[in-house]
Amino acid sequence: MGKRSVSAGQRRTQSRRRGGARRGPVRRLVLPALILASLALGGGAALAHFHGTETGATAAPPAPGPMAGEADPTTAAPATTPPEPKAKPTPTTPPATTAPKKPTVPKSGPGTFTTARAAGAVTGDRGVLRRYRVQVEDGIDLSARQAADEIQRILAHPRSWAAHGRGRFQLVSENADFVIRIATPDTADALCLRQGLDTHGELNCETTDGVVVNLRRWMLGSPTFAGGAAEYRHLIINHEVGHEIGIRTHMACPGPGKLAPAMMQQIKGLNGCRSNAYPYDEDGNYITGPTVS
């Protein structure tokens, strides 16, 4: 009984324990080997990246990603410029019609005159021949020659005096029987006052040597006259020349709605008549009315 007897089962148990103790170091060697093998097969890139970031190796850095708020240029859709809006057609608006600007009429002038250097043919075929000259006050924007041409046309109008045998007229520059002067309001007043006529800076008059036309009336017409200034000039000349041929008195309105006589002072009111610039109507009838002093 000096030695203990060991059964077979005990020997197997001891053997496993010793075998397990021997296998421990082997397991510790196998695991690193497996790791190295896997790295060699497919993990080289990961190992290189690991070494590059940790050891300072000069591996190429990864491409920088887009910053916050920026589109990734490799994936962003190409920028498109929105089409410019089509210009809307500009509506064509007709220009606004404005009344023609009234000419400026100076109140006074130097009192000296320029005579129109012009001569014309005789107007009319019956009656006394009366030669006239035209003068325009200096310093105003009116040509004496142009004024003379216009007066010549007025006296030759088919509804004026000469066309109906009430005299003949001829434009001359000297040796005239009477003169037609166009003057500023102050000068016209002074010339008319010599005949005892108060024209108030507004009216025309007839003097011993001829006719005085107020520049304001010549340029602007009359507020009581339905036509324009150009037509009113016919009334000025026909009225004042009417005095020259011997019609000394004025006339009144012959009745409501009728044409006012040329010898009526229409600027002072029409009294129911229609304004009219001519001594005769379109049928050649003399337009007359009651005589007034």
Helix and strand layout, with pairings?
Elements: H1 8-55, E1 113-115, E2 129-137, H2 144-155, E3 168-171, E4 178-183, H3 185-193, E5 205-207, E6 210-214, H4 215-220, H5 229-244, E7 250-251, E8 291-292
Parallel strand pairs: 2-3, 2-4, 4-6
Antiparallel strand pairs: 1-2, 5-6, 7-8
Description:
By secondary structure, the chain is an alpha/beta fold. The chain has a domain at 113-246: Collagenase (Catalytic Domain) (3-Layer(aba) Sandwich). Helices cover 31% and strands 12% of the residues. The chain is built from 5 helices and 8 strands; from the N terminus they run αββαββαββααββ. The chain has helices spanning 8-55, 144-155, 185-193, 215-220, 229-244; strands at 113-115, 129-137, 168-171, 178-183, 205-207, 210-214, 250-251, 291-292. The strands form 2 sheets. Strands 1, 2, 3, 4, 5 and 6 form a 6-stranded mixed beta sheet that branches. A two-stranded antiparallel sheet has the order 7-8. A hairpin with a 2-residue loop joins strand 5 and strand 6. The longest helix has 48 residues, at 8-55. The relative contact order is 0.09.
- Average pLDDT works out at 79
Say how many strands there are. 8
Percentage of residues assigned to helices: 25-40%
Task: Specify the overall morphology.
Answer: globular
* CATH topology title of the domain at 113-246: Collagenase (Catalytic Domain)
Query: Regions with pLDDT < 50 over 5+ consecutive residues?
Result: 1-78
Radius of gyration: 60 Å
Distance between the termini: 191 Å
% residues in beta strands: 5-15%
- Number of alpha- plus pi-helical segments: 5
CATH architecture assignment of the domain at 113-246: 3-Layer(aba) Sandwich
CATH class of the domain at 113-246: Alpha Beta
Sheet bearing the most strands, described? Answer: 6 strands, mixed
Topology pattern, helix = H, strand = E: HEEHEEHEEHHEE
By secondary-structure content and strand pairing, the structural class works out as: alpha/beta
